[in-house]
Amino acid sequence: MAIYIAVPLTIDSTALNEAVERTIASHSDRYKLQSDRGWLIRFDGTSVELSNHIGLTGQEQGQPSLIGSAIIVPVSGYYGRGPTDMWEWLKTRLE
Question: What is this structure's pTM?
């Protein structure tokens, strides 16, 4: 399975948070970033399929997204600073 990062492009991330929690049922397949800045998600599909799965996209033409705006990007590597459990989550799922 691939790992994606989903980041809200709106000030209020409540709708994205609720959508991820509702559609990615397994806690082991999602990791909420600090301060509601987005999610790491393990998903068996493409970024478009994940976007449609959580309801960000996939609505009928002309219908707005109920989630608002967000970006979904596949993770192929990582580097930076963050909580230890986040690095462990990424490491164990990318292996």
Answer: 0.93
